[in-house]
Amino acid sequence: MTKIKDIYAGKPDAKDEIETEGMDPFFENYVVPSNFNINAITDGSGAFVTGYKGTGKTAILFYIEKYLRKKDDSTLSSFIFFKGDYSDSKKQEMEILAKRLTSIISIGNDVVLSGTDFEYIWRWLFYSRIIKDNQDYNYGIFENNDSWIQFEKKMKQIDIGKRKGLSIPPKLSLSLPISDTLTQATISPTFEIDFKDSKMEESASYRTFIQIIDDADELFKNLKRTDIPYFIFVDELEAYFGDETVFKRDLRLIRDLIFTAKKMNMVFAQNKKVKTKIVCSVRTEIINAINRFVITKELNKVISGFEVPLIWDYTNTNSYNHPIIKILTSRISYGEKKLGNSLSEQEIIKKWFPEKIGSSDAATYILNNCWCKPRDIVRLITSAQNCLAADNSSFSQKTIDMSKKHYSQDSLTELKEELRALYSPEEINSIITCLTGFKRVFSIDELHQRVDKYYPHIIAKKNLSDILSDLYRIGFVGNHIPETRFYRWQHKGDDGIILDGAWKIIIHSALTSALSVNSRQDKILSAKNNPEPESGTVVNFNINSIWSDFVLGEFKYRGNNYKAKIIKSPDLEKNFNSLLAGEHYKVKLINCDSTIWIAELI
Known about the structure:
The chain is of the alpha/beta class. It contains 21 helices and 23 strands. A hairpin with a 2-residue loop joins strand 13 and strand 14 (360-361).
């Protein structure tokens, strides 16, 4: 019998999954959301795949590349992974996979880059990548004619040394050929750009570098493309809030990379006969960080004009038809096939899922305990595989209970990573500590009280609204009206948190175990802070409806609403007939029958 440990889980990172598991398992288990417009990238102007962390941006880039190759097997591609090298470890170029070339942009802490405009640096790196690709592909991308020779010669004036991948070195050498009028010979004096120089943009060598790139721009426009499609995919555009100088530098680098990609794509688009494009995956939180911490240079206008969003919020889709659930059933099916079992989707559902988990349908429970991201399913499977549930043969209530803590802790770790684009590690720890052991459902006033009492020097009260807005945007919290059981979540398409009125704030159900919060605890805390009414208490009773033998209404006690009713009796008949709906009356509480108080007029 197939067990949970036999299911294909994959990896949280698509690149890691392909390198360790191989291309075939990855693509056999890959699900494309039906609302993703792949043609906007392959045949239209789309160039930026946007989405939150874990939505599958890396995976979709690999899928797009395969899709392009399927349409035209001569398609050539190159992958560039943006990485900030925050340690002393050296990055090595990844091995070539099939016809795909890969490289890593390495930016060390010793490279300050104090200038404010990095578009020239990016054009230099992209031109360097294109030259290397064309050489490696035996000049199959651009014809090796006089224009190409001039372009390559111009770029060789910048000494990039013997390095692997695409790195920005602390210093850059410029070799400029100059004719000696006395000897009629050509010499090549060397100039250096020191990227650690705070006045880099003012240096003569940097101005020379800019002139070389300007000349290369003009030469690049004259290059003749072959009829082979060529795509450059740029991924892992990350920046982490640690060292402020490095963080803001990386945000400016990403911002200008996006501008550079857009400008180069405009040049490529002039040749409509041959498909050539730079495609970037851009994390939504990085865009938000750029808007918050550095000058945007109208970045949003560039992104919105050429973006193709990757979203999975299918609010009107039947649970088992939801693409996120289909990822899970697809991976279960793959595990069954490896053991010789060929099951239909309906057979898999019947075998692997109970009718109910808790009080919800199984698929609905899974969807409500995730953020509608492919990575959630990887985490769900691995959490079950890494506990005693690994030998279970279904995602039963027992399996969910056994893996719940592990899944919750891994989910919290994932969201902490998301917050790293906006907060320092110390700030993230303070936010998590403040919410741990608190309440699952709370108002902003209740949170203010907790911060004032326990964390006055850690979390600034004036920034609490901003923090909650960030937590809402990544799905850490949502909005909730307890009386109507109505919910709002960013990952389900409800933009912006509501912090006033009847709306409360609710922690995502997948995080409750890791944060030690739950509904039962909320009731205990509420009872402690707001004691329940007792028999004999006099309250103002508002009548909602009048019936032949009783009236129904409600009253408020210490900020909470309670239901109550007055039962008609012979002694009350005269006064009972004079009661009016919508009016308030003084009543004394007698006793509580289940969830409703019995009261009498006074």
